[in-house]
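Incident review: delayed structure delivery

Summary: a single-chain prediction request sat in the queue longer than the usual turnaround. Root cause was a stuck worker, restarted by the on-call engineer. No data loss occurred. The affected request and its eventual output are reproduced below so the record is complete for anyone auditing the incident later.

Affected input:
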Amino acid sequence: MSQDIWFNLPVKDVERATSFYNAIGFKSSNVGGERAMISIGQTTIMLFPHETFEKFTGARAADTSHSAEVIISIGAESREAVDSFIRNVERAGGNVFGRPGETDGWMYGAGFADLDGHRWNLLYMDEDKMPKHQ
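Output delivered after worker restart:
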């Protein structure tokens, strides 16, 4: 059995959400009907209208204007990649809630919310500067 992990996200407008993700560098396929499949690297994300998501999960979708259900992290190849990605998020209409910056001398990242309020973290880790565990 395959051990792939897929994320399923409720969105208000599948076509609009798919356009946003394409604008920030994700790839889409099987767009149409009431769902879309997008991917970045080896990760697949399924976008569903709220009603379909709630039927599928048997639970109400989180109201992302008042709470966060999860933060999804994406690894970046460099500090410049973080900066470029965040510029794309801003151009596509996303909300940057954590400006790019350094943490602990070896991590550089930023946080953003997509058009539906789902929260994402983008992170570059400089392995040469990482603390060594003994």
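Verification: Residues 68-134 form a domain with the 2,3-Dihydroxybiphenyl 1,2-Dioxygenase; domain 1 fold (CATH 3.10.180.10).
Action items: add queue-age alerting; document worker restart procedure.
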